[in-house]
């Protein structure tokens, strides 16, 4: 079962990196730290509505998958399955 544990841990690391990139790709909504550092200057050059919806959808899917694998690893560790 150590191969399963190692595989799931590698998947968690890859999903963490992907989730970080997806979150950073989101357009700032204004009033936050992105405006403080000049992010508000590029509001008009943002993505289209369809691209933003797809980005939101993929971010949620990857986040849910990440949470599910974290819970699975925790349960497997608690019950001695790995």
From TrEMBL:
InterPro entries tied to this protein: SecG (IPR004692)
Locations listed in the record: Cell membrane; Membrane
Keyword Transport on entry: yes
Chief site of localization: membrane
GO molecular function list: protein-transporting ATPase activity
Biological process annotations from GO: protein secretion
Residues forming coiled coils: none
Annotated membrane topology: Multi-pass membrane protein
GO cellular component, one term: plasma membrane
Domain of life from the UniProt record: Bacteria
Annotated transmembrane regions: 6-24, 58-76
Keyword terms, alphabetized: Cell membrane, Membrane, Protein transport, Translocation, Transmembrane, Transmembrane helix, Transport
UniProt family annotation: Belongs to the SecG family.
Function field: Involved in protein export. Participates in an early event of protein translocation.
Name of this chain's protein: Protein-export membrane protein SecG
Record organism: Bifidobacterium erythrocebi
């Amino acid at each position: 079962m150590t191969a399963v544990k190692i595989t799931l841990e590698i998947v968690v690391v890859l999903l963490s990196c992907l989730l970080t990139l997806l979150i950073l790709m989101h357009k700032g909504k204004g009033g936050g730290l992105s405006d403080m550092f000049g992010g508000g200057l590029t509001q008009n050059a943002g993505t289209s509505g369809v691209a933003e919806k797809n980005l939101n959808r993929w971010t949620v899917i990857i986040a849910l998958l990440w949470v599910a694998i974290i819970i699975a690893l925790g349960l497997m560790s608690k019950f001695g399955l790995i």
